Amino acid sequence: MDREAEVLQKNKRGIFSLDVKPIGRRQFLGSVAVGLGAFAAVARAEDEPLPDEDQGFPLFARLKFPGGDWYTDTLTGGHAGGAELNLLRRFRKNTTGKAIVSETFVDPMTDEIFKYPFLYMSGHTASDFPQVMVDNLRHHVLCGGMLLADECSGMQNGSFEMACRRLFIRMLPEQALRPLSIDHPVYHCAYDVNEVLGGDKLVSPYDTAVELDGRIGVFYCANDYGCAWEGHRCVPKGDIQREHAFKMGINLLVYALTH
After folding, report:
1. Which terminus of the chain is less hemmed in, N or C, by CB atoms within 10 Å?
2. 206 phi and psi angles, rounded to 5 deg
3. Residue 62 and residue 222: Cα distance in Å, rounded?
4. Other CB atoms closer than 10 Å to residue 215's CB: what's the count?
5. Against a cut of 0.90, is the pTM above it?
């Protein structure tokens, strides 16, 4: 195992556990099986203090990709407050996950990405990406990491979507981006999600992914989870849709750390 893979596996082992009552069958791919709980009851009491947000392990990093607005939905680049901060706070509240709550921005042309099991990229626009970024991201997902690409514009075949599709083909030319069935483990590894309701918008009734030996390496969302996490108005189903986006965000983090 090379150095980058060792870093990823160490972080996966150190970040995550759940300490809640099992409510039924949850099947995880790979070697980890965990009983997950009824999150409606909340894993922590409402008045229970959480550990300091800077205490824990690195989990979530946003890619500063060239040629587009990578900073959308951040504290400084958004309109309602940092998307990943809100998601990570939900993750820490509803699980015993020890992820640091921070906006962490990494250059995908450097080996900094290998410190984080979960990588996130979002935007309205993008252009073709440098080969070194393609190579690094390929190595990251082949080592066991996971990439979420989140379309923010609400446009099908817009510049961000098309750039991402070209990126995935260059990263993993032998694997295709395919629609996910709602019975896929990513929809049931923490919360049971039985319908795709979208992020702050509903552009596509399904999500897509590139799988590697049965494990998702790349997850593509056309429905803009980030704006829902940040606090934008969600259409057409309002707060029900926002809760769906948070549940899916937590599912993605759990999946990334256990598969």
Report:
1. N
2. -150, 160
3. 17
4. 17
5. no
